[in-house]
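ok so dumb question maybe but i'm new to this and my supervisor (M.) told me to 'just get the structure for FAD-containing monooxygenase EthA' and walked off. so i did the thing. is this what she meant?? sequence i used:
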Amino acid sequence: MSTQPNSPGNGIFDVLIVGAGISGINTAYHIQKKLPGSSYVILDTRSNIGGTWDLFKYPGIRSDTDLHTFGFSWSAWKENRAIADGESIARYLKDNAVQERIDEHILFQHRVIAARWTSSKQIWIVTTETSNGQQAEYLARFIVLGTGYYDYNEPLKANIPGLENFEGTTVHPQFWPEDMEYAGKRVVIVGSGATAITLLPNLAKQASMVTMLQRTPGYILPIDNATGNRWYHRIMPTSWSFQLDRWMFMWLAIVIFYFCRAFPSRARKMLESGVATLLPASISMDPHFKPSYKPWDQRLCFSPNGDFFEALRNGRADVATGKIRTIKGRKIVLESGQELEADILVTATGLKLVVGGGIQLTVDGRPVQLADRYTWRTSMLEDIPNLIFVTGYVNASWTLGAEVTAQLLCRLLLFMQSKGLVSATPRVSSARKLQPRLLWNLEATYVKRAAEDMPKCGDSGPWKGRTNYLLDLWRARYGSLVKNMDFAPEM
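this is what came out, is it supposed to look like this??
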């Protein structure tokens, strides 16, 4: 066993958390508050707190949901802006970890490569590899995978014909070089998601021309990014007023999502009319801003203060729509015959989705294939004892999903302590065959490509996927803990 912070006397941690990002920090906070006598450790591959917000360095990196709900429920986001840059988010995470002394429980540069459950001892044996190549083992009763939803080490391979022929510089936003020079250069961003919408106005500040090349358009919602200036901020304590902001943004997201689902035609007209008023005369709505799918079949992209459209109006950015036929030298040739000149090609085509950070899991010597597993309360995996994985929502902020999971975990641990139980294993009843459902029900290409490797939800009971934060939070706090769950007593 390696030396670790706050090591328990018997060498076995009650909870081992993988990841020092939003999910890990939030889980640690709830464990400290609700189970103060429990021991825990956080293991992280990187050298800093922050996860995604410490990794991504591309120009303008920012949240794609509002920070009032993306921030923690126990520490209100107090800046007067809803969408914030990555550096500010990383600072917010670090400040809260230090304030709550969670940082004292973190071991950095410890990459978890394997975790094996042994029923004879009712523990997890977790193998890590440090930055200098040394391996160590940690023992834990419970594991929490706060590893996010994508591969930190490998980007999604861009399916672009002739990409290998490009004579300029190709870069993926996930691994943006610190010394990347783009001032005065022609940049083409392939993609139309949140990353592309963020990159375009920021690159346009220095590049000679930035073109967003999209195969199909997406929905973009310009928003006023200023918060914290409403009347109740002047009469209420700061902690109250920003908590009120949190609830207002939470309800706004719910209303927008269900309005789009219930009235897709009307929602489409509203979203498209909002875009039409911001476009320059040189750029037409059709085909560039006429999505072929319904609102919220894919995530909406936010443009704080309409910065995306401002870049288009300034004439230093443009949009092209169509499929790439091939690439010749520095020319990107579309099937329509249109050619785009580029010095830099940015492949903002999505992330390679991975649940559990690619950790090799075994249960009593048998390898675990995540794609074969149903998810219990979208937090535990079928036939895998004492393992929690954290995931967010497709229609709301990631942190809300992390909050639901942390509340469920702590309640489950308290229940097990009160009953003298040492393990909990979700089991699918043999009396009913579940109908599989996607873990994330989105039409995005990168989600579809990963579906066959992801765990799945069911169509009934605790196997159903999450629907909305408020309902899921109620279930986490008051729903059944014993339905479709096997428990083992202390030996």
